[in-house]
Design goal:
The protein contains 33 helices and 28 strands. By secondary structure, the chain is α+β, with helices and mostly antiparallel strands. The protein folds into 4 domains: 112 residues, Calcium-transporting ATPase, cytoplasmic transduction domain A, CATH 2.70.150; 333 residues, Calcium-transporting ATPase, transmembrane domain, CATH 1.20.1110; 164 residues, HAD superfamily/HAD-like (Rossmann fold, 3-Layer(aba) Sandwich), CATH 3.40.50; 194 residues, Calcium-transporting ATPase, cytoplasmic domain N. Strand 1 and strand 2 form a beta hairpin. It binds adenosine-5'-triphosphate (ATP). Adenosine-5'-triphosphate binds next to helix 11, helix 13, strand 17 and strand 18.
């Protein structure tokens, strides 16, 4: 099968367009702009501008209109940026498809598939276009997305398969008949647009914003009533009330939240963790257990065959990586492989029973397909057995596919009239299928004793962290579907190394500090898993067993920390729950069992992150709090069921993502507290002024408040939102799920600080003789408050650590914010035109010193409060 030529593809792309669905609900810039008018502050300001016109304050009117304009534009820019960040995230996870073009298998972006393309599809793939099946092995397709039917449909040759549906079993080749909007899915595309719900955190923050707005409203009403008693002119009172409203509404909150989340996700994507669901960002910070696959996640998935057991001998194989260069040794002596007939037969078997392709590109050898199979092809070529040549000699006529459940794979070949069957798979599974064993030139009955001996050799290999496969074959004259894998002849064992990734040890260390448990869940052998687990520090020395248990059977599991799939089958759910917190390795498990493990952990109150790659991992991924799919070796089905995709399949990326998740949440906590504290400061200050001195002596004028809240609020909040993750963040235990931002501890911090700042500012106000020079007193309050804002941007870089510990200059954006705030403040205070609008007078050195000392006092106060709270160490959430 040759497939289309490149030229033809180009023509067809022009004619039919890209294979993509038109998005109906694209967010346009107009929509984003209009969304800005749902901001309550915009309407408050609008009301203020109307009032200004009424009372003849035309200058005020223009200032307010300018501020209004500024807020809308700023909001627009930020949201646009957030939207773009999200869009580019979506682009990173563009799906790919395998097609045959010009006689070769190629992996291309799904959107480049054209009618007439030959698709190569296998278990776990999402079908990229409507197509007609032309070659098929046990194909089952899940068409629920189109028909609602949840049972997989069996597809035969000449049946149609449809874009968007998924292959849950078998494989096929299919000819594309329709792409893009011409597909069945395209025709109903509008109906299945995904909508992302707001996450609990977003909901909580929106609610918080509303509560604060309500408090502001109540304050306004109270002041209004107060004013009526004092017989203050109604318009003046309205202005004050509006100024208060501006002060109290934390308008920066939702925007800073959106931006922090979207840019945070972007940052994580750059580090290879793609968040598919926004909710995952906040859940990540609460993860208490990571259940990780071994092969490819904890290990490198770069397999090299190092040992082969055949004919009662162990052959050592040299060479590294996928380069087909190496030699065979027995007991240190080089052997001539051609004299070792059974070794050659074994190597032929593993090269033929194989779907990987070895390729040389620019002088570098690599494989397309499963690395386990790649390693087998490579070891074959070391004996000069090339797959292409062998396949010509023994054409393949059938295959029983590999699945994680079966743990083996078989291919059927023909040579003349002779039918040959080659199988490879987990040794214990292969052994069960073998009735004979090949020794020298003879085929002997395979005794149980011999099987036990071979299992021992397998165990020895596995204990040295080798991944071992058993190999078998048979010659047959007639085959039925039932007897293909029966009565096989055992050939030997192949042991390959798959070293742990270098970074994994460190990542596990970080997890230990961060009170996150790591569990290895693997389809591989128990001994191999244990050996790898020991290498990376999964097993604690002198481990203290948490669970107290009398049952002897269960005790053994607790001591070992290991449970195998078959043992797991024998445990009831209750039994599993009773030991689940002490098990470190689950070996030889099938994907379905992952779901039980997730459920047991969840029942114990854990927040579980679980990795997976296959079709049958999907239920566990969906059920886990964070389902993590592999970007490289994962199937489309697993990716769609996941909350996060690891672009590099690497375990350490999960830990890094958790660190980022914790940091993002902490940042949100920081800027929320920051914004609330400053807003309340202004409310308390105005309240104090009105109650103690009356309306005439407001400590700040509405326009002045407006200035502080529009120009000095957003930038520090965003800078705090983007504060880089600190290593120390992994030294804390995971955050409790559902814990709100305003915990008792945070509320205490925020409100005590607001009270302190307002009191200091008020004291500065009354000590600067407002009755004689109200303008000067207000200027001093203004300068003090801005100074406090600046000190607070640093204070809030941590809600519990001292700033001296976390550093003053680490966040460049924060420094920029401070510079901008300082300059704009000096401008309004000293440029005569602005000075007049805002009713400021210049301050002398002594006055400046008073203001700066007042501002600095917040810094001292916050350090003291943090110290006090660090010693107290209580952080119970507000229910
Ligand atoms: P993990 O679950 O950590 O990714 P794994 O790759 O060993 O580990 P599976 O892919 O479920 O898990 O494989 C289970 C077992 O099946 C392997 O341990 C191996 O013995 C066998 N096996 C793996 N790949 C193949 C293959 N291509 N052909 C035949 N047998 C295989």
């Amino acid at each position: 099968m040759m497939g289309l030529s490149n030229l033809e593809v180009e023509k067809r792309l022009k004619k039919y367009g890209y294979n993509e669905l038109k998005e109906k609900k694209k967010v346009t810039w107009i929509k984003i702009l209009l969304r800005q008018f749902s901001n309550i502050l915009v309407w408050i300001l609008f009301a203020a501008s109307v009032i200004s016109v009424f009372i003849g304050e035309i200058l005020n009117f223009w200032v307010i209109i300018f501020v209004l304009f500024f807020i809308v534009i700023l909001g627009f820019i930020q949201e646009y940026k957030a939207e773009k960040a999200m869009e580019s995230l979506k682009k990173i996870v563009q799906p790919t498809a395998k097609v045959i073009r010009e006689g070769k298998i190629r992996k291309i972006p799904s959107k480049e598939v054209v009618p007439g393309d030959l698709l190569v599809l296998e278990m776990g793939d999402k079908i990229p276009a409507d197509a007609k099946v032309i070659e098929v092995i046990n194909l089952k397709v899940d068409e629920a997305i189109l028909t609602g039917e949840s049972k997989p449909i069996v597809k035969k040759k000449d049946d149609l398969i449809f874009a968007g549906t998924q292959i849950v079993h078998g494989k096929c080749k299919a000819l594309v008949i329709a792409t893009g909007m011409q597909t069945k899915l395209g025709k109903i595309a509008g109906m299945i647009q995904e909508v992302e719900e707001k996450t609990p955190l977003q909901k909580k923050i929106t609610k918080l914003g509303k509560i604060l707005a309500l408090i502001a409203l109540i304050a306004c009403v109270v002041i209004f009533i107060f004013g009526v008693f004092e017989e203050v002119p109604i318009v003046e009172m309205l202005m004050v009330a509006l100024a208060l409203a501006v002060a109290a509404v934390p308008e920066g909150l939702p925007l800073a939240l959106t931006l922090t989340l979207s840019l945070g996700m972007h940052r994580m994507a750059k580090q290879n963790a793609i968040i598919r669901k926004l909710l995952a960002v906040e859940t990540l910070g609460s993860v208490t257990v990571i259940c990780a696959d071994k092969t490819g996640t904890i290990t490198k998935n770069e397999m090299t065959v190092e040992k082969i057991f055949v004919d009662d001998k162990i052959f050592d194989v040299t060479g590294v990586g996928y380069e087909p260069k190496g030699e065979f040794f027995v007991d240190g002596r080089k052997v001539d492989v051609y004299k070792e007939k059974n070794l050659i037969l074994l190597l032929k078997s593993v090269v033929l029973c194989n779907n990987a392709v070895l390729e040389e590109k620019e002088g570098k050898w690599g494989i397309i397909g499963d690395p386990t199979e790649g390693a087998l092809i490579v070891v074959g070529t070391k004996a000069n057995l090339w797959k292409e040549d062998l396949e010509k000699e023994y054409p393949r006529v059938g295959e029983v596919i590999f699945t994680s459940e079966r743990k083996m794979m078989t291919t059927i070949h023909k040579k003349g009239e002779e039918i040959l069957v080659f199988s490879k798979g987990a040794p214990e599974i292969i052994l069960k299928k073998c009735k004979f064993i090949k020794k020298k030139d003879k085929i002997e009955e395979f005794s149980e004793d011999e099987k036990v001996k071979i299992l021992e050799i397998n165990k020895d290999f596995a204990r040295s962290a080798f991944r071992v496969l058993g190999v078998a074959y048979k010659k047959a004259s007639e085959l039925t579907p039932e007897n293909i894998e029966e009565d096989l002849v055992f050939l030997g064992l192949v042991a390959m190394i798959d070293p742990p990734r270098e970074e994994v040890g460190k990542a596990i260390e970080a997890c230990k500090k961060g009170k996150i448990r790591v569990i290895m869940v693997t389809g591989d052998n128990e001994e191999t898993a244990k050996a790898i687990g020991k290498k990376i520090g999964l097993f604690e020395e002198n481990k203290k067993i948490k669970t107290k248990i009398k049952n002897e059977k269960l005790k053994k599991f607790l001591e070992d920390g290991v449970v195998t799939g078959s043992e797991l089958n024998k445990l009831s759910n209750d039994e599993l729950e009773s030991i689940v917190e002490d098990i470190v390795v689950y070996a030889r498990v099938v994907p379905e069992q992952k779901l039980r493990i997730v459920n047991a952990l969840k029942k114990k109150g854990h927040i579980v992150a679980m990795t997976g790659d296959g079709v049958n991992d999907a239920p566990a991924l969906k059920n886990a709090d964070i389902g993590i799919a592999m970007g490289v070796k994962g199937t489309d089905v697993a990716r769609e069921a996941s909350d996060m995709i690891l672009q590099d399949d690497n375990f350490s990326t999960i830990v890094e993502a958790i660190k980022n998740g914790r940091a993002i949440y902490e940042n949100i906590e920081k800027f929320t507290c920051y914004l609330i504290s400053r807003n309340f400061t202004e409310v308390i200050l105005i309240g104090l002024g009105i109650i103690l001195l009356g309306f005439e002596f407001l400590p700040l004028l509405p326009l002045q408040i407006l200035f502080i809240n529009t120009f000095d609020e957003e930038m520090p909040a965003i800078a705090l939102g983007l504060d880089p993750a600190r290593e120390e963040i992994m030294n804390k235990p995971p955050r409790k799920v559902g814990q709100g931002i305003l915990t008792k501890r945070n509320s205490f911090l925020v409100f005590s600080l607001a009270l302190f700042m307002a009191t200091v500012a008020f004291l500065i106000f009354i000590t600067s003789n407002p009755t004689i020079g109200i303008e000067k007193a207000r200027t001093m309050v203004f300068a003090t408050i801005v100074g406090m804002v600046i000190f607070n941007t640093f204070n809030f870089r941590s809600l519990d650590e001292s700033i001296f510990k976390i550093g003053i200059f680490a966040n460049k954006l924060l420094i920029l914010a401070v510079v901008v705030i300082s300059l704009t403040t000096l401008c309004v205070m000293y440029i005569p035109f602005l000075q007049r609008i805002f009713e400021f007078t210049p301050l002398n050195l002594k006055e400046w010193i008073i203001c700066l000392v007042g501002a600095f006092s917040t810094f001292v106060f916050m350090e003291v409060i943090k110290l006090f709270m660090r010693n107290k160490k209580t952080n119970p959430p507000i229910p």
